[in-house]
Amino acid sequence: MKKHYLLAPGPTPVSPETLLAMATPIIHHRSPQFAEVVAECRVGLKYLFQTKQEVLILASTGTGAMEGAITNTLSPGDTALVVRGGKFGERWGEICAAYGVNFEAIDVEWGRAVQVADVAAKLKANPAIKAVCIQAHETSTGVNHPVKELAELTKSLPGTLLLVDAISALGAFELPMDAWGIDIMVAGSQKAMMLPPGLAFACLSEKAWEFTKTATCNKYYFNFSKELKNIQKNTGAYTSAVSLVMGLRDVLRYFKEATLEKIFAEHQLMSKATKAAVKALGLELFSQEGASDALTAVRAPAGVDGQDVVKLLRDKYGIMIAGGQAEAKGKIFRIAHMGYIGNFDIVMIIAALEVVLNELGYKAPYGAGVKAAEEVLFGGA
Ligand SMILES: *Cc1c(COP(=O)(O)O)cnc(C)c1O
């Protein structure tokens, strides 16, 4: 049987413990037994989001929570400011357009982070902007945007919210919702949260909950006020994704036990090791600034198609990483190191990369990347 490895930015591997937690018999979503599980998840989610607010649990992928963030706080004809530095930034704009919300865009070169001054200038020029929409980590480029600094801007504007897509960020690096003043943070189960795809999360500040009272965008399923009332009673508005929530309880116990501090430090170390290794192989990072601890986006070397790196790893060696999307297709490949990934997974993927690069005609000395990774991960030999 062929061994498979998953180092793509979602879905990510799920631990055997969590898989077993999800294999327990289905319990009813309106039973006291399930209410107990939800009650525990509510506490664990507040720890993970670093918030006092309630975190809503939705049965959808992350995009559903993004859509809900728009429709629950804005109205047709409102204006949002969308930072587009990759595929997921574009998605914010597409959702606005679908609901008749006008948007101004700041187009950021792929591989770069938005300049805080550019956002400040837009907000100053148009005081009617009701929401700034951004990714904490733009997964298509491997770049973190300066969320903390952007929150400094929106905090002092009573009429403007900061909407943060933390789908590939939450659980991988520091993103304290309350301390920074983020108004809406959305997440998904299948990235650094170490769960299968199928759950989304949304958390709103008091300021954002105020906006929900006047928002008139059409909505039915993603009705945050209705979800809030239900989760406060330890249930959901509709049939909960019972098995996934069992898994959620399991990973949240792990987050609490291991502590966010330790988990973030582990991600940072794996990220440093991966980045040092690809540089030792003579490759360049795609991110020109704000390189994320959740993922390493690498420029394919001259003469090598990034898609071929991805395909060879997948088809010959059973290792799944990700290629470039849209305009970055063929130019880059992306190695995710988020969630249930350990130090020796990094050593494995770097070794595999050395092999496929050579097979594709790029001369990478065997062991050069592995050595650099090991030195970061374990200290000098
Ligand atoms: C994966 C991802 C999404 C989309 O999530 P789905 O779960 O596929 O809906 C959105 N934003 C970012 C930053 C992501 O990484």
From TrEMBL:
Question: PANTHER family per the record?
Answer: ALANINE--GLYOXYLATE AMINOTRANSFERASE (PTHR21152:SF40), AMINOTRANSFERASE CLASS V (PTHR21152)
Q: Which Pfam families match?
A: Aminotran_5
* Species in which this protein is naturally found: Desulfobacca acetoxidans (strain ATCC 700848 / DSM 11109 / ASRB2)
Tree of life domain: Bacteria
Query: Could you say which enzyme class this protein belongs to?
Result: transferase
Q: Which residues form a coiled coil?
A: none
Keyword Transferase carried by entry: yes
From the Swiss-Prot or TrEMBL record, give the protein name: Serine--glyoxylate transaminase
